Amino acid sequence: MFLAVYLVINTDGSYGCSAGSSARCCLSKPPTQSWLMGHLGEMRSTEEGLQVVDELVRNYKHSCSWFLGPFYSLVRFFHPDYVKPLLLAPASITVKDELFYGFLKPWLGQSILLSNGEDWSRRRRLLTPAFHFDILKNYVKIFNSSTNIMHAKWHRLLANGENRLEMFSHISMMTLDSLLKCTFSHNSNCQESSCEYITAILELSDLLIDRRGRILHHWDWLYWRTAEGQRFRKACNVVHRFTSGVVQERRNQLAHQGVPESHTEKTEEKKKVVDFIDLLLLSKDEEGHVLSDEEIKAEADTFMFGGHDTTASGITWVLYNLSCHQDYQERCRAEVNDLLQDKQTEDIEWDDLNNLHFTTMCIKESLRLHSPVSAVTRRYTEDMTVPGDRVVPKGSICLLSIYGVHHNPEIWPDPDEYNPMRFDPENSKGRSSHAFIPFSSGPRNCIGQKFAMSELRVVVALTLRRFRVTPGGTKVRRLPQLVLRAEGGLWLHLESLDTPQE
Question: Where does heme bind (predicted)?
Answer without folding.
Answer: 446
